[in-house]
TrEMBL record:
It is a single-pass membrane protein. SMART domains: PHB. The lineage of its organism: Archaea, Nitrososphaerota, Nitrososphaeria, Nitrosotaleales, Nitrosotaleaceae. Residues 61-220 form the Band domain. Belongs to the band 7/mec-2 family. The chain crosses the membrane at residues 21-39, 45-66. This is Band 7 protein. Keywords: Membrane, Transmembrane, Transmembrane helix. Residues 303-323 are annotated as: Disordered. GO terms for cellular component: plasma membrane; side of membrane. It is found in: Membrane. Its main location: membrane.
Amino acid sequence: MSRDYSSFNFAERLIKQKGSGSHIIVGVLILIIGIGAGLAINNSWITYGSLVLGISIIISAFLMIIKQYERAVILRLGKYHRQVGPGVQTRLPFADNILVVDVREKVSEFKAERMLTKDNVPVTIDAILRYKIIEQRAKDAILNVENFNQMIQQVSQTTLRNNIGSSLFQDVLSKREEINQHIKTTISSEASNWGMEVTGVEIRQVIIPQELESAMSMQAQAEREKSARVTYGESEVLVAQKFLEAAKVYADNPVAYALRQSNMLYESIKVQGNTIVMVPSESLNSMGFGNLGTTIAYLESTKKAVKQQKSKDEPQQEQPGSK
């Protein structure tokens, strides 16, 4: 863990120092050497040039430039003096120590590895944290904590572990927004003491063991099969109810029942074409076709109806080809 934090600090250390007395020392040396050399060789250009250059460097030692996304804290003789914003600012060489911090929003990754949920399910959580330093309280981020990046990283990881340990596994999967909000609120209460604002926390990935993932897949499949069987059973009940209603109608009207049987026989012959269809004699008797002559006449009329239907369908099928 220490290795991770060291790389984190090396990559994202945002506090830097500006200014020292080196400018004045360089400027004084240029003045002494330049003026002495100019007088020694009696060259006024070297004298005036070194004079202008040395004075410019000495004046620059009293000035500093702060960028738009930076805030600077001035420590005069080791004591907090003031906080300044972007632009050209003044300082006292040797007396002032300038600490500059970046106030732009930052993103940090953190995770909880092999944590047990409340129902003893091992999970690994990968999350991100978005935060920034409050502009008016940049001095708190510098003076109240040694390394705010490392501190907020440790607090985020500890808060995530505590929250996962007190939550059920199903809640971790289905209530991410609530967990994100709870973690954000907890971290914000801690980070406010350091002049920092937490803008967002998001759980990116929940990793579970492979065997548990397979068991969850089997459970989901079983649930789908259960739902399909229930739906099929409900449809069978609806079909049975419709059949019951139809039976009541046919029981009160034998003619309708005979017509229905005739239609079913016609449809079967129409589908089969020239194939011989065996029809039980009981069905013919119930439809009134008990004698052979009547049955033959009915079958002949059915065949004619089928042929007429085919003759009507053939011209319709030839028309698209002719075009």
